[in-house]
Structure formats: structure tokens, C-alpha cells
Design brief:
The protein is α/β, with parallel strands linked by helices and 423 residues long. The chain contains 17 helices and 16 strands. The strands form two sheets. Strands 1, 2, 3, 4, 5, 14, 15 and 16 form an eight-stranded mixed sheet that branches. Helix 5 (127-143) packs across helix 6, helix 7 (198-215) packs parallel to helix 8 (233-245) and helix 9 (262-269) packs parallel to helix 10 (282-290). It starts with 6 loop residues before the first strand and ends with a helix. 53% of the residues are buried. The model has no long low-confidence stretch (mean pLDDT 96).
């Protein structure tokens, strides 16, 4: 669904946005927002043609535009959720209760839980059965101000199911307005048919899956879970090197459970993002800060698992570009809550309100290699924004855990609670 409309957003009490076409790195850059009181935004054919003080606006620019009254409230760039496992079948609500009770991961696996349950359900699911739940998740995300989201495959770990997940993402692009970035992640785990032969599975992905995904143009990036007991450095290097040669952008799940040198490897291989990073090493922080690899942190997952949060404050202070994302998935984080994510980042991870806004907009866009197109309110970029129900972006952390978004605009088209219900 592509929307290219003309819209005039006026009576903006406060406009707050990062600026630039690349990730902001370090505390000074991430904390530097352009703030305009009494602002206006004009969007033509889905692109921003004016953003600035309303008193400086040439009214001729607004001719033929639909109008959106911000009612003196704050306007921000649309949120970018740059890490989700959006397309899957079945839920694991019982497993979550077992985990809260203190049951071990192995005992849950023995009862048929864990990623194997989602894999088995997803392999059996039709495209329609994958489509409808994902569409409902996207509607909820849109209501919380998400204008762009990533969608990974990875719950098939065999060719036909992986293709079905990716084709579902393509259909979702046609059925709803949130911009989607598709990531191929067959290397989410080693499937049972390759048990004990993880490198053989990687070679199968390289020889049989990647070329098919590429030929059908089903994904922009390739991801892998680089972790002790999952995929090692040799396997990661083999897959991502082959993916890069085929023209895929590279992403990596790294250093989530143990310090495994994943961040260092992600920086070396030129990944656009390294994600999770709860156990990142000092050297990993240094390497990410030196490169253009965005550190994508997923605090809702740490919250769900009762794990320590990634060291966001340390990473930012040492010059990393940090993004924030939901990690929506049926196991470790069945949530895409932007309000929860914002609260965790500011209250528990030591991030300022300004850094958090940058992490959820421009740096999230950079984690998808789209910072030149989205992620900030600047002339020439997509007309994607959110109108809050409060006068300042600071209310996102102050009025915590509540959805403060009054309207979401994608490409100059407004979506509110009433219009989202009709999608």
C-alpha cells in the first residue's frame, strides 16, 4: 500500500526531530534535536516540502492540501521499529507462565516449547494463517506511531516455509500502510533435520535458499543468530559473506546470552546493525563505535526475560549509534509496545528523552539503511510523522507506559484510531 498525498499539518506546539541522513553517534549527536515551537509541516506527493516555523510558511504551499490540526501538541518523526519477528504461527502463552514460575529453558523444550513449537506451527501454516495475525500486529503498531518496521523470516528454517513467510511480508506491504523492510533469517537456529550439522545447514542456506530469495526479490537483508550453541563465527562469516556477494544487506543477532564476540564480528563484516547486545564486550563497543554498524537494543526482551539490559549509557558515551526496537516475537517478547520500550530506555537504561527519540527514529532508520529517506522531519524525506496528544516529546517518558499518539501520518496520509479500524 503506497500512499502519496498532500497534507498541511498546522498549529504544532512543538516539533522535535533529529537531523541528518545517517545514524547519530554518541551522546552529543544523539541528544541534539531540532526543536521548533509554533511549527508547520507541508507534505506534497508523500514528501516533506516545508518544515519550520508556521510564521515563515508561504501559504501558497498549502493550496490543495488536506489539513491536520495538531491542536498545539507535539509532532515527531514516525517511529521506526527496526527489529521484529512479525510473521509467525501460534502463540506460546503457556510457556510464558512456565518461565515465570521458574522452569528452565531445557524443561520447556522437553515439553515441546521454545522455538521448535513456533517452527512446527509455522511450517504447517498457510499464507493466509500467517497473514491475518501479522496484519493485526501492524494495526496496533500503527496506532502507537510506528511508520516503518522490519519483518524477519526464520520460523521455517526450511525453504518453502521461509519463502512463505517472506511472501506474506510482501502481501502485507499491499494491505496496510506501515512501510516494511524484509529480512531473511533462516539461520535462526539449526532445524532438527540438521541436528549436529550446523555448518551443513549454513551451506544449504547459501546454495539453495539465498539464491531463491534473491531471485524472487523477497528480502533486503540477511540475518543470523550468532551465539554460543547456535551459530559460531566461522558459520556466521560463511553465510554473511555469501549474502553480501549476492547483494543482501547484513544484520546479526549478537552477544545476547554470553559475550561471544558478535559485535566485533558484525563491525568487521560491515553489518548495518548488530542486535540485542546484552553481553557486549568493551572491545565490541569500541568496534561498533568505530564503524557504521548500528547497535540495536531490545529492552522489552530483557524485561520479559528478567535479564540485565544492554549497557546503553556506556555504549552511547563511548560513541556508538544506538537504535531501539521491540523484538516482537511469540517467545521471548510478545510485545511491540512503543510506550513500554520508551519507559524502559529512559527509566532503566539511562538514556535521555532526546537520545531515546533519536534511537526510535533516525537511528532506527539507519539500522535499516534508510536514513536518507525516513527517520527525521526534513525537506525531501518521506512525510511520516506522529502527532502526540501532549505538548512536548518529554511526555513520552513522563507519562510512561501510555500510548500518547493521537494520529500517525505515513506519506501524507493520516491514520487515527477510527481509520485504523477500517484497514
Amino acid at each position: 500500500m503506497e500512499n502519496r498525498a498532500n497534507l498541511y499539518v498546522y498549529n504544532i506546539g512543538q516539533l522535535a526531530t533529529p537531523i541528518g541522513n545517517s545514524a547519530r553517534k554518541g551522546a552529543e549527536a544523539m541528544g541534539n534535536l531540532r526543536i521548533i515551537e509554533g511549527a508547520a509541516v507541508v507534505i506534497h506527493e508523500g514528501k516533506i516540502v516545508f518544515v519550520g516555523p508556521q510564521k515563515e510558511l508561504d501559504e501558497a504551499l498549502t493550496k490543495g492540501c488536506r489539513k491536520l490540526d495538531a491542536k498545539g501538541n507535539a509532532v515527531l518523526p514516525g517511529f521506526v521499529d527496526s527489529h521484529t519477528h512479525l510473521v509467525f504461527a501460534s502463540y506460546r502463552e503457556d510457556e510464558f507462565q512456565w518461565r515465570l514460575r521458574g522452569d528452565s529453558y531445557m524443561s520447556i523444550m522437553e515439553r515441546g516449547g521454545g522455538i521448535a513449537k513456533t517452527m512446527n506451527s509455522t511450517r504447517k501454516a498457510s499464507e493466509e494463517e500467517l497473514l491475518l495475525p501479522a496484519l493485526q500486529h501492524l494495526k496496533a503498531m500503527l496506532a502507537m506511531g510506528v511508520t516503518t518496521a522490519e519483518a524477519k523470516s526464520g520460523y521455517g528454517m526450511e525453504l518453502n516455509t521461509e519463502l512463505r513467510q517472506l511472501r506474506t511480508t510482501q502481501r502485507l506491504k499491499e494491505l496496510q500502510p506501515v512501510r516494511l523492510f524484509s529480512t531473511f533469517m533462516a539461520a535462526h537456529d539449526t532445524p532438527p533435520e540438521y541436528k549436529g550439522r550446523s555448518m551443513d545447514f549454513i551451506q544449504h542456506i547459501i546454495k539453495d535458499m539465498l539464491p531463491r530469495v534473491k531471485s524472487e526479490n523477497l528480502a533486503e537483508a540477511c540475518d543470523i543468530f550468532t551465539e554460543k550453541g547456535v551459530f559460531n563465527h566461522e558459520e556466521t562469516r560463511a553465510l554473511l559473506t555469501a549474502a553480501k556477494e549476492m547483494g543482501f544487506k547484513l544484520k546479526m543477532h549478537a552477544d545476547e546470552i554470553v559475550a561471544f564476540g558478535g559485535a566485533e564480528l558484525a563491525a568487521e563484516l560491515g553489518c548495518i546493525s548488530a542486535d540485542h547486545l546484552l553481553m557486549i564486550s568493551d572491545q565490541g563497543i569500541k568496534n561498533l563505535a568505530e564503524k557504521n554498524t548500528v547497535a540495536t537494543l531490545l529492552p522489552c526482551t530483557a524485561f520479559s526475560l528478567k535479564a540485565n539490559y544492554a549497557p546503553a549509557r556506556k555504549m552511547i558515551d563511548q560513541g556508538c549509534a544506538v537504535a531501539l526496537a521491540s523484538d516482537l516475537n511469540p517467545g521471548s517478547c510478545f510485545s511491540a509496545s512503543i510506550p513500554l520500550l520508551y519507559a524502559l530506555a529512559t527509566i532503566y537504561m539511562g538514556m535521555t528523552a532526546e537520545e531515546t527519540l533519536t534511537a526510535l527514529t533516525l537511528n532506527g532508520a539507519a539500522a535499516l539503511d534508510r536514513a536518507s529517506q525516513i527517520g527525521s522531519l526534513e525537506v525531501g524525506k518521506a512525510g511520516d510523522l506522529v502527532v502526540l496528544g501532549y505538548p512536548s516529546y518529554k511526555f513520552l517518558s513522563y507519562h510512561f507506559g501510555m500510548n500518547l499518539v493521537a494520529s500517525t501520518v505515513i506519506g501524507g496520509v493520516e491514520y487515527n484510531n477510527q481509520t485504523i479500524l477500517t484497514l
